[in-house]
Amino acid sequence: MPGYITTFSYQAATCHAPQFAPRDFRRFRVTPATGAMGAEVEGVDLAHASDEAIRELEQALHDHLALMIRDQDLTPADQAAFARRLGAPVSWPYAKPMDGHPEITELIQEPGDKYAFGASWHSDSCNFERPPKYTMLYAVECPPVGGDTGFANQYLAWETLDETLKRRLEGVRCVNSSELAYGTASLEEDVQDHTATPIVYREEQFNEVLHPVCRTHPVTGRKALYTTSAFTARFEGETQEESLPLLRKLWAHAATPEFTCRLRWREGSLAIWDNRCCMHYAHSDYPGHRRHMRRIVIEGERPV
Ligand SMILES: [Fe+2]
Fold this sequence. Notes:
The protein has helices spanning 51-64, 76-84, 154-159, 163-169, 178-182, 184-187, 189-193, 240-254; strands at residues 29-32, 39-42, 66-69, 89-90, 105-109, 134-141, 149-153, 173-177, 208-212, 214-216, 223-225, 232-235, 260-263, 270-274, 278-282, 291-298.
């Protein structure tokens, strides 16, 4: 028999308990997406939601990490007003904001574009001192199929690491850099020329910040893995070269299929997710079709 080494391992069974025991909300219906995370929400009108509905939505978000809220009809002003009920919208400095709405970034994919915005696993704006707690996207126009957003539960990613690795990583910080997400790869000519949402990134916008590789969610108190290839350059006190073998192992683990869900868009759907405990991925599988989203991010706290 050839003496092969084993190059894969099975993921032991795991799940996120609230997916199997969704609360009975008074103001809408919730349908969990997978055993890992995510839910579809029906029966609420975000433009006229009561305070109780807003409280319940935030509870549902803490339970399920990402929500796809169906059947909305939101003007940009409606969307911004809804966002303000969840916190302070922050402007995003790497793309031109929507005219008259500095808090909204329009993400438009034209039929001829080669690259989709956000087509890699990441949590939003990890290079900010206080990265956004929530991101919301509202679908103005969708391809007939494709363009789903994938999500990965980072509580599960942390909890399923082996104990030795968890002990080694506890308290360790990583350098998160604007250069990775908005410099290098994004500014390659081929990418800039073939995307409808060009990144605006000047040298003076370069910044780096230290965040813990394991963060504790301020509301749920649970620990989540917090590193992504889009922003994490290296461990504190190490070079990128020294850091990459372990970082790559963490990034591959973070996107284990058992931690994920994939939410499908319809026009008039609004998705909202919690960047403190999940990553997301924009599937780039609809060449020849147009997709138009409006995005708002809501200020978060310094990760600890
Ligand atoms: Fe994103």
